[in-house]
Amino acid sequence: SDLKFHDLRRTFCSLLAQNGVSTAVTQRLLEHSSPNLTNKIYTNVDPVLRQSVNKLPVGQWLQK
User: For 21, left (φ over 0), alpha (ψ -120 to 50), or beta?
Assistant: First the structure.
């Protein structure tokens, strides 16, 4: 896997959006000049993909 620092940033932003954090707050945390940039790049979460990931047995992996 080619994980890059920006992937962590994207995940952080997506998690904020999923948990109801406003775009204005997220924009400030990421130091973006525009909320449009934040919405366009970081908060595009496909509901079907999210449901698929939520089906993974993550709890079992963490217990090992």
Answer: beta
Return d(Cα 63, Cα 15) in angstroms, integer.
22
Environment class of 13 (CB within 10 Å of its CB; exposed 0-12, middle 13-18, buried 19+): buried
Global pTM exceeds 0.90:
no
Q: Contact, 11 vs 43, CB < 8 A?
A: no
> Residue 58: which residues within 8 A CB-CB, separation 6 or more?
none
- Which pair of tokens denotes residue 7? 């992937």
The 10s digit of each residue's pLDDT in 16-45 is 887 888 889 989 998 989 888 888 877 666
